[in-house]
Design a protein that fits this description.
heterodimer, A: mainly alpha, two-stranded antiparallel sheet, B: mainly alpha, 3-stranded antiparallel sheet, two-stranded antiparallel ribbon, 24 helices, 69% helix, globular
């Protein structure tokens, strides 16, 4: 059982070795990081198979079992997001970043830290891995050289991010003070007694707000637009599409295991609805593609938050589906946005120069809006089912959500219309062919998902049910407590 | 694989073909062939449409434990017939000389085929999910049809898009509510549950379904988008759009909500606070107002295509009115009106497009006197407006008669008055249409104008003749309506070739038309044999308003037409709904700017603090 550890160790090792490898064997160097990702992907698929055969399992480091030792919990949910992280960063690797050792290092750190983040079975490690991911993403967001706006934006990102991290730390220390343990399954046992009072819930609120910085939730998401507008598109795609989801998964875990309390659900719901409204409206006002996409991703992540705030497996299912759909489509959209900078009006007639890119943009937008039979529709369909079945506040949230889809359609097609307008002036340049490759891969994946909605739905349902099974989590991690339940 | 599968497959193949070969000169003729075959296939399905039986298609999906199935019932078949017919004539019109005046024929062919295919898919839907899929397909297909010309067309199409998405979301909400409540997406389960659903829930569903479907039909108060969007669509496709596209809303509303069980339930669904109004009467009045107001807006238009498009909205109101009456007579009237309307509206749009082709404009202020140059187009337009106004011998008369009759039978005289007011507006404005294009003085710039070529004239004439034949022998169209009516669960009308036998008064169009021709013949005999010698003056030698006019004094009061009428009713056109729409738009823009500013202000730490304090406060 070395697999889960390798998922974390290999990227870290790669990250620290990479400069040396590059110095001595430049030819080999550019292959090291993709190779690590591929190896990890294979390990991850192997673990996936294992989970399918024997079910969820936990792994104790160094022979110390929980609650004393450090634990990785391996179930469908965590592996799914590790898979997303690995395949996403592999996809975004294609082509562009050869020989840029600093970025490669940071990306590997994100991969390792992110894998650890979703696998960890105790709060302290969650915090550590979260910090690694956060610091690496501050660096990555400033990686367009000589861009003063980009530096300023990432500095702001850094400030708000560190404030958020300190809130997380504060929350974790409150929990530690209340319970004396940080192991998640041990906490799960203690939560009903110790954590659902005022102090325990305030710990949740602090942690939620801290994670919100990364998860682009209201109102600590003001960094998003500027960073995504100035960072390299691949970084924007990575942060918007994938890294933000990892923070969301941690929030989901906390919610499921420790805080199945009405206050926690309502807090997440409220933050989600507020973020949805402001995000989509701001996207409607934005006048360039990058910022539109950035605000739209705020809106989408808020929708995922709303989905996770619905108690029961259906909410989790829709949240996971929306998260994956968003990861896929927003990545594709950002890849298309590479050369479409500046104000909308400067992009008249681009469709004639870049017909394929414009067509892909239409397909992605339609899926984003949720037009059947594209995958986005099914994700939204499940969310609406869960929401309308859940109760009053959720139904209001669903109405807001439906209205936000109209706004979404309005801003996507306002932009697309500009692309297809005839223009007397010379249309600006089109995206690199190189940048189109990942977008094409995304489009193919989207098509495949569309054809396999039913099996995917089946698998995700299993994962969602598995994730919401708290008893199994405890049992798998703490066999000794089995008798108590 | 049955005939229905073959039909859907052929329709899909037409799309594929048009994508690859749409730029060829003979693509239009291929379209004619394809739509003709589709029409023949539909005719071949005539025998399969029995009562409420459904002919299942081979395509069936199982998604998320929901069965998605497609199949054709009588009502879908009826509308599919109109769809394929409208596409046939649009394609026929565009196949010949017309295409030389267009630079994007490939896209026009492609979007037409796409629209036909998506409409067939919608018309074949057999459960709520397949209905929603079909609905979205149709919405987007017609969006692409409207938008591709760019410029003003794209503006109008964008407005349509926002409306259509709002409608789709209402529909989405209704469907999910039904699925959550009933655990099933099948129509049958919903219909079975209608009598037992609680009032509040049913009101919600009525509201959502009505919003969703009526936005497509441009029923009041959602009527603002349609006229611009249809009028700006290039060429023959506009005739297709206005002939049938908006009827998809009527189809869906009739199928989902206005079956006998639904009408019966709506009849007992009282409006809260105003309990003397039930949901059915409410719908009927909305339909009646839709028949009136857009018709009088049409009266104001100075562009021929806009005028026709506004009439399309008003006629949709009449159809809905017929169906909400909910008697076999009323439903037959509403459905027959959909058929009849398609024939004359397509003819009218094609005639106006013919004028556009020859003169380059459809501005009613810049035309006139074309009767001497384009006599055949004039005849088509004349027959078309007779149908639109609902006068014998054209088919529009028959369906309006049925609707009026059903209103009388049901004891709804005020609605009858409303429908008549709408007809009055129609007659006034179609006179404006034909006068300003064809009558009066010919303009100097149009001296050289010629009649349109045969390739365009033939489909126009065929449509006009079709309108006449189904007016003379409404039994032909009524036997198609029977199928739709039976599928909805109403008894078919006892009809014969010339009309129908009805207890409170029968109609035989053979007699009506016979007497009409007889009267005209007597008039002609008196005129030719006993009248004064004819004194034929030149077209420019005219007389109007007490003045003799000659060629050098341009006569044309097409501008500011009906000043007297407008003095009376002009004050009523106050655009309240337009103001509401603008208000919503500005509100969204304003709050968008606010949200944007919120994200621009650089006090993230303050926000963080605020939300933390707030969250803490909520705990205590």
């Amino acid at each position: 059982m070395m697999g889960p550890i390798l998922l974390v160790i290999l990227p870290f090792l790669g990250a620290f070795m990479l400069p040396m490898v590059y110095r001595h064997y430049a030819q080999v160097g550019s292959w090291v990081a993709p190779l690590i990702l591929v190896v990890n992907l294979i390990i991850c698929l192997g673990l996936w198979h294992g989970v399918e055969v024997v079910g969820a399992q936990s792994m104790a480091m160094g022979g110390f079992t929980a609650p004393l030792g450090i634990v990785f919990y391996i179930d469908g949910l965590s592996l799914l997001f590790v898979l997303l992280l690995l395949s996403g960063s592999l996809l975004l690797w294609l082509g562009a970043w050869h020989r840029r050792v600093k970025e490669e290092m940071l990306l590997l750190l994100i991969v390792g830290g992110g894998s650890g983040l979703v696998l960890s079975g105790d709060l302290f490690n969650v915090y550590v891995f979260f910090e690694i991911v956060a610091v690496a993403s501050y660096g990555l967001s400033a990686s367009r050289r000589g861009d003063a706006c980009g530096y300023a934006a990432s500095l702001r990102f850094l400030l708000i991010g560190s404030l958020g991290s300190s809130l997380i730390l504060l929350g974790i220390s409150i929990i530690y003070a209340l319970t004396g343990t940080l192991n998640l399954s041990h906490l799960t046992l203690l939560a009903p007694e110790l954590l659902q009072g005022a102090a325990g819930l305030s710990a949740f609120a602090l942690m939620l707000i801290g994670f919100s910085v990364k998860a682009e939730l209201f109102p600590v998401n003001t960094w998003v637009a500027e960073v995504y507008a100035h960072a390299p598109v691949r970084v924007s795609a990575l942060l918007a599409g994938i890294v933000s989801k990892l923070a969301m998964v941690v929030v989901l875990r906390l919610l499921l295991l420790l805080y199945s309390h009405e206050y926690a659900y309502m807090l997440l719901l409220g933050i989600g609805v507020a973020g949805l409204v402001t995000g989509e409206l701001a996207a409607f006002h934005a006048k360039d593609l990058r910022r539109t996409l950035a605000y739209s991703s705020i809106g989408q992540l808020s929708v995922i938050a709303i989905a996770f705030s619905i108690p029961g497996p259906l909410g989790i299912l829709s949240g996971i589906a929306l998260a994956f759909h968003h990861a896929l489509v927003k990545t594709g959209l950002f890849m298309l946005a590479e050369n479409w900078r500046g104000d909308f009006s400067s992009l008249r007639g681009v469709a004639q120069k870049a017909p394929l890119a414009s067509f892909l943009l239409i397909v992605f937008s339609l899926s984003m809006i949720g037009i059947p039979p594209l995958p986005g529709f099914w994700a939204k369909f499940v969310l609406l089912q869960a929401g309308f079945a859940a109760g009053n506040w959720y139904q209001i949230a669903m109405i807001v959500f439906l209205l936000s889809i109209v706004v979404e359609a309005a801003y996507f097609f306002r932009f697309i219309r500009v692309l297809y307008q005839n223009s007397a002036e010379q249309p600006p340049s089109m995206p690199h062919k190189r940048e189109l490759q990942p977008a094409l891969v995304v489009a193919v994946l989207l098509l495949l998902v569309m054809l396999m909605i039913d099996p995917i739905n089946h698998n995700l349902t299993t994962i969602a049910t598995q994730a919401s099974d708290v008893k199994a989590y405890i049992y798998n991690t703490l066999p000794a407590w089995k008798l108590d339940y | 694989m049955n005939l229905l599968d073959a039909l859907l497959l052929l329709s899909l193949l037409t799309v594929v073909f048009m994508y690859f070969y749409g730029q060829r000169r003979d693509a239009g003729w291929f379209g004619v062939a394809a739509y003709s075959i589709q029409l023949l296939m539909l005719a071949g399905l005539y025998g399969d449409m029995q009562n409420d039986l459904v002919l299942e298609a081979g395509l069936r999906l199982m998604v998320m434990d929901f069965n998605l199935s497609w199949g054709m019932s009588g009502i879908g078949w009826f509308f599919a017939l109109i769809t394929a017919g409208a596409a046939l004539f649009a394609s026929w019109f565009a196949a010949g000389d017309w295409q030389d005046s267009q630079k994007d024929m490939r896209i026009q062919h492609l979007v037409l085929a796409l629209n036909v295919f998506s409409m067939l898919v919608l018309l074949c839907s057999q459960d709520f999910l397949s209905l929603f899929i079909g609905w979205e397909l149709v919405s987007w297909a017609s969006f692409f049809m409207m938008t591709h010309a760019g410029g003003k067309a794209a503006d109008a199409a964008y407005r349509y898009l926002v409306y259509a998405m709002s409608g789709a979301m209402a529909l989405f909400a209704a469907i999910v509510l039904i699925i959550v409540k009933l655990g099933s997406s099948r129509f049958e389960d919903f219909w079975a549950a209608i009598p037992t659903l609680p009032d509040s829930f049913l009101w919600l569903l009525v509201l959502l379904f009505f919003t969703g479907f009526s936005i497509k039909m441009a029923v009041l108060p959602f009527h603002l988008w349609q006229a611009d969007a249809y009028a700006e669509t290039p060429g023959a496709n506009a005739s297709f759009l206005s002939a049938i596209s908006a009827r998809m809303g009527l189809f869906a509303l009739a199928l989902v909500l206005l079956q006998p069980v639904g009408i019966e339930r709506l009849h007992h669904l009282m409006l809260p606070l105003f309990s003397f109004i039930d949901a059915r009467i409410l719908l009927a009045w909305i339909a009646a107002l839709t028949a009136i107001i857009p018709t009088y807006i049409a009266l104001q238009q100075s562009d021929a295509r806009l005028l026709l498009a506004w009439h399309g909205i008003g006629q949709g109101g009449l159809m809905l009115l017929g169906i909400t009456v909910g008697t076999p007579l009323g439903v037959a009237g509403g459905l027959l009106h959909a058929f009849n309307y398609a024939t004359y509206q397509a003819a009218l749009f094609l005639a106006v497009t013919a004028v556009l082709y020859r003169t380059g404009t459809t501005d009613l202020d810049k035309l006139g006197g074309l009767i001497t140059r384009m006599p055949w187009s004039y005849i088509v337009l004349l027959l078309g407006i007779i149908g639109l106004a609902g006068l014998p011998p054209m088919n529009g008369f028959v369906s309006k008669w049925l609707i009026y009759k059903s209103l009388l039978d049901q004891g709804m005289p005020m609605l009858l008055v409303a429908a008549s007011i709408s007809t009055l507006g129609t007659i006034l404005s179609v006179y404006k249409l034909i006068h300003n294009i064809f009558l009066g003085q010919l303009r100097k710039v149009h001296y050289e104008v010629k009649e349109v070529p045969l390739s365009m004239l033939l489909p126009m004439l065929t449509l006009a003749i079709l309108g006449f034949i189904t007016g003379l022998m409404p039994g032909l169209a009524l036997s198609l309506v029977d199928k739709a009516q039976m599928a909805l669960g109403y008894a078919p009308l006892p009809h014969h070739l010339g009309g129908l036998e009805w207890t409170t008064g029968s109609l035989n169009m053979l007699w009506v038309v016979g007497i009409l021709i007889y009267g005209i013949a007597i008039g002609a005999i008196i005129f030719y044999f006993f009248g004064n010698r004819r004194h034929i003056t030149h077209q420019w030698d005219n007389y109007a308003g007490g003045h003799f006019l000659s060629a050098d004094v341009p006569y044309h009061y097409s501008h500011n037409f009906y000043p007297g009428v407008m003095r009376v009713i002009g004050g009523w056109f106050r655009n309240q709904i337009l103001n509401i729409e603008m208000g919503i738009r500005h509100f969204i823009q304003w709050s968008g700017e606010l949200s944007y500013r919120f994200h621009q202000i650089n006090h993230p730490a303050l926000y963080l603090l605020m939300v933390t304090v707030l969250a803490m406060a909520l705990i205590v």
